Every structure is written in structure tokens, then in C-alpha cells.
């Protein structure tokens, strides 16, 4: 055949070792992550944890941090998936310097250093500020439901739990009575069973069965105590808030009366029969997601700056309602950035009398003008224009806020809310595969959400300045 092809020899032996620098093109995300970890991030909280000199040398923390940041940025979050990528994927092999840590090492590192990894969120935010990507003119606050690493079918309602606990207690008592009966004449029974079944044989393993039932009873009792404690705490907070508002209307202040009202309400509190606890992840809760389905989940909160969609605050709560997070999230945003936003856009999920009062106080104290929806609009429904004339003197805070959003500046400002925060959640769910959490417990969920938020910020920085811009910012 006359046609000539380029030389191709799969069995060619490399006479010189390959250079890792030749594996990836310039401007690749993996190069950005490598420079970020090696030069920009402060890993001293991680390194400070290694004080023991004995034992086999562990992997360099920079190696694992590189893999985790790149994995959480590109949607490869499972430790087993990262281990496979260190063999199959050029970018991961580049970051790991052609090493392949096993999934146990990666998973243990993530769990051991979760607080330090979550702290990368603040470092990513400060780096974005240094690059001029955070303006704090207008921010949007919103929440999204993250699926917990637990099945909702492993949850039990309070009413069923009490009934099940009583039945298991009866079973335990029956087994204990049976065990006492068998132990009454232990030597005679042992001799008879040895003769019948042999020295190693057994007819019924009562101690193991009893131990299993007692463990199950302990789980049920712990779940019941958790539900009762949550009901008491909810009643206490509601009573204290009610007493404070009563005193505010009366123009008085008595903190002891507030405490007494809370304690009295907590003592009388009784859980609702449908209140649930999960045996796999007790901190997670049954929540309704945006599709209307009920899932075992955590409520992830975020504050996003308008200029470059940088997350300025991130947290996780176990309460399905967003209303409890308005003040805490905006306070965290101001603390993280060192400044207060000029405008804050929040949806109707945060609307409550307490938050409307807090928004009024925040504007006076910090200058943050809050636009809070007082009700949900239907699909394609437009906000009607504000009525003409002065606002009535007896108008409530909710009525004043509704009228504020119906003004021309109010409609213009609030129309930006979805464009600021919704794309951030969408990109975390799809590009970073962040719809479901891998770690259990509230602390694990919070740490993983902040790591996801940090990687989202770092990806925006990469898109904005690239590797060359990062080097200039570091210099």
C-alpha cells in the first residue's frame, strides 16, 4: 500500500522518563488547582495535625487536597471514584504526581481534616475579594435541600416509635425471663445439652438474640429522646419569642420572665405523632424539595454576591424552614467579607414577623436594604404596581414590605434574585454532582457543603483569571 501513516508503536519503551508537565495543555483546570494548593492556600491547619513521627510515612497532605479540590470541582466526589481516576484520568494523575492513593486513605483524610477542608471556603472567598470579584452591592440569600446519605425508609414516626418501643421492651422482658428460667438449673441443662447436641452445639442462642433486641431498644429510646428534645426546644424558643414580643408591645424588659416562659413551655411540650427520626443519619430530616417530593435531607443555605456569583456565606441546618436563617446568614456574610451588603434579596420562605422586624433594624444599623417577598407568585405572574398615595400609618411591616416590592425600584431589584442565586445552586447540583451528600451527621453535612461552596468559588476564579491571573494575584 502506497499510503504513508504516522509511526505508531504501542510497545515502544520510553528511553527517558516522561515529564508530568507534558501531560496537560496550558490553562487546564488541573494546573490551576496545583498552583492554588502549592502557592495560594494556607494548609497549616492540616499540617499542624501531623505530630507523630512514628509509623509509615503518610501521603503528603497537598496531594490529597489537590485531588479533593479537583474532584469536588468536577463532580468526582466519591473516594473510590477518585482512586479510579488516579489511574484512568490524566488530570488526576498529574495532580497526584502519578501516585495512586487508595480510597481508604482519601476517605480517612477527608473525615479527619473536614474542619480544615471546610475552612477552604473562607480562603476562596478572600482570594476572590483580593481579585476584585466581590462587590457586596447586592446579594441574594436562598436555601436548597441536599439529600442526606440515608434513606427516608429508615425513619420512624414518634407514634410508631413509641408503639414499637413498647413491643421491643416486652420482647426483651420475655427473653430475659426465658434466660433466667434456663439459667436456674444451668449445670443440669448444660450436661443434658452436651449429651444431646455435643459440646459445641446449641439449640437457641438466647444471649445473642437478647443482645440484638437490647441494641434495637436502645436505638428506639435514643430516637424517642431526640424527638422529645427537639419538641421541647421548639416550644421553648417559640414561648421565649412570644414573651419578648409581648414585652416589646408593653414597653418592658424582663429576661427572667422570658426564661421562665420558655422552661414552662418546654416542660409541657409533646412531640407530634408524625415527628420522625432516622436511624441511619439521626441529624437529617424529612423535607420537601423543589419538585414536591419528600426526601431525607439537610437545608443548605447560601448568600451569593451579584458581581461574579461568589458565595459569601454557606451553612447547613436541620430545619426545613428557611425563616430561621435570615439574620444568621447575613451576619455570617458580613463577618466573612468584613462589610455589609447594600441590598439583600430573599424569597417568601424567609418572610416572618421576626425577620421583617430584623430587616428594619438591619437597615438602620448596617444600611442593608432588604427586599423580602411576602408571598409566592404563580408561574409567569407579574408583581402588580404599587398603589398611589401615602402608606397608611397603621400598615403592618408585611404590608409595607409588599408595597415596597411593588414599587418600580423594588420590582427592578427583586427581579435579579433568581439570576443571582439559582444558577449557583444549579451548577453545584449538576457540574459538581452536589445533589446528595456523602458524609453523615450535621457537622459532616456542613463541612461537605462548605467544601462544595469553596470549589464553586475556585472554579469561578479560574474562569475569571485563569492560571496566569492567579500567579499575578499571588505575587
TrEMBL record:
Compositional bias annotation for Basic and acidic residues: 231-244
PANTHER family, per database record: TRANSPOSASE, TRANSPOSASE DDE DOMAIN-CONTAINING PROTEIN
Protein name in UniProt: Transposase
A GO term, aspect molecular function: DNA binding
InterPro entries: IS1182_transpos, Transposase_11, Transposase_InsH_N
One GO biological process term: DNA transposition
Domain Transposase InsH N-terminal: 19-112
NCBIfam families listed in its UniProt record: transpos_IS1182
Top-level taxon: Bacteria
Region Disordered, residue ranges: 230-284
Pfam families: DDE_Tnp_1, DUF772
